[in-house]
Amino acid sequence: MKAICLQDQSTQVNSSLCNPQTRPAVGSQLCNTHPCPAHWSVGEWGSCSVSCGGGRQSRAVRCMRKVVYQREEVDSPSHCPSPSPAHSQPCNTNTCPPEWSTGVWTQCSKTCGRGLKTRSVFCRSTDPGARAVVVPDSMCKVHLKPKAQETCVLSRCPKNERLQWVPSAWGECSVSCGGGFRRRELRCGERDSTGGFSEFPPRRCRNVRKPQTELQQACNKAPCPQLPPPSLGRAGSAIGLGWYSSPWQQCTVSCGGGVQTRSVQCLRHGRPAAGCLPQHRPLSSRACNTHFCPAPGPVLGPAHSPALKGEQNCIDYYGWCHLVPQHGVCNHKFYGEQCCKSCSANKL
After folding, report:
1. For the segment 208-257, what is each residue's pLDDT rounded down to a tens digit?
2. Strand order of the sheet with strand 61-68?
3. Cβ atoms within 10 A of the Cβ of 251, count?
4. C-alpha span between 307 and 263 (Å, rounded)
5. The pTM is what?
6. Residues whose CB falls within 8 Å of the CB of residue 189, separated by 6 or more in sequence, listed in order
7. CA–CA distances in Å: residue 85 to residues 64, 80, 91, 107
8. Are 234 and 275 in contact (CB under 8 A)?
9. Bridge pairing between strands 114-118 and 121-124
10. How many whole angstroms separate alpha carbon 301 and alpha carbon 156?
C-alpha cells in the first residue's frame, strides 16, 4: 500500500502540503494465503491412429493446483471439478478408398535358368461395411498397381554338352549363270546318337562358340550363253527383231514344288518392239524344285494314301495351287497331283 496527501479528505494534493510527521507507515503484507482451488490442465491433441476409416487421438489431462504465487503442482483428480475433460476422441472418420491387394507368388515356371512367377492382383474395398470385398480395378490407382509377374532364377541350368551350331544346307544360287552367290545359316541344336538333329531357338546356344565356317560362296560362275539369233516375224523384213529372255530367277521354294520365272521381250536392236511371232515366244515360267520336302516322320503323301484316291478327293494341298494353271504346268506329275482341284477346274 502507499500514503497520499488529501485535502478535505477528498482531493489529492501535493504531499508537501501535508505534515510529514503525521505520514503513516507504508509497506506490504501477505493476503489470501489459503490454496487456490484445483483445476484441469489439458495438452494438445496427438496425431490420429489411422489416416482414414476412423481412429483415435489422445491428449494429456492433469489436475493442477496453484500453491504459491505462480507455482503449480499436480493434485489428486478427486480435487478437480467433475467431469474431467476427455482424454481421447474419434478422428479421421472418413471412409478409406479401395486399395490394391495381392495373392501369394506361384512357384517359378522353371527349375533352372530364367523363369516366371505370377500372383493375383486385385482391387479390394477397405470399408468394413461394404458388401463386395473385390471391386473393379478402375476404383484403385493404376500407377500404384503391384506387378503380377516377375522373372525368377532358382539355379543355373547344367551346361548341355551336345548343343552346337550346325550349318544348314546351301540355298539356291542368286543367278543361273554369269556368277552369283548362295547362302546358308548356322542353326542351334543337338545331334542324338542316331545322327538325327533337333533344332532349338538361337538363344539356347548363346554361350556356345560359333564355328568358323563359310556362310556364303560363289556359284554358277560359267558365263551366260550369247543371245540367240532373233526370230523374224516376216522373213527379211525385220532384221534385228526377235524374242529375248533374261536368266531364270531363283525358285520360289527350296522343295515341295515352286515356280521359276524370267522376262521375255520382243526387241528390235535392243528396244521393245512389236511383230515377233507368238508361236516362237520362249517360256516365261517353269516348274522347279519339285521334290518333296523332308518330313519329321514316315507320313504318307497325298498321292499314296488309299483314303485320298479317287476323284471325290481331288483337292489342293498348297495355297499357291491357283497359280499352277496360269503357268501351264498342270501336266507335270507333281503339280497335277498336288493341285488336282485347280488343274481339274481349268480343264472344264
Report:
1. 888 888 999 998 888 766 555 544 444 334 457 888 888 888 888 887 77
2. 39-42, 61-68, 71-74
3. 20
4. 42
5. 0.32
6. 163, 164, 166, 197, 198, 199, 200
7. 13, 11, 17, 57
8. yes
9. unpaired
10. 44
